[in-house]
Write a structure and sequence with these properties.
Elements (H helix, E strand, L loop, with lengths): L14 H12 L19 H6 L1 H22 L9
This protein binds zinc ion.
Zinc ion (ZN) binds next to loops.
């Protein structure tokens, strides 16, 4: 049965594309234990981020780096290095 919903979760029309994408992404995952962290902004800042992306993302990355650095200093027993 033909299906043209183009929903990425649909197994008939986009499911194989989603599977191919997932397979391709898995090749880029490093072969080591690591944590994947996601930092987000409140939705209230979306408009500001669109208007001033350089400033907003610079602040975000600065805050992220400060947070991770403080976390790393407290967890020196792990003897890891932030990358
Ligand atoms: Zn479909």
């Amino acid at each position: 049965v033909y299906c043209a919903c183009r929903d990425r979760h649909c197994p008939q029309c986009q499911g194989h594309v989603s599977d191919q994408w997932s397979e391709q992404q898995s090749k880029d995952v490093i072969n080591a234990p690591y944590f994947h962290l996601v930092f987000t902004l409140p939705h209230e800042l979306n408009g500001l981020a669109r208007q001033y992306p350089r400033e907003i993302y610079s602040c975000l990355f600065h805050a992220v780096w400060q947070t991770l650095s403080q976390f790393a200093q407290r967890k020196k027993q792990l003897q890891g290095t932030l990358g």
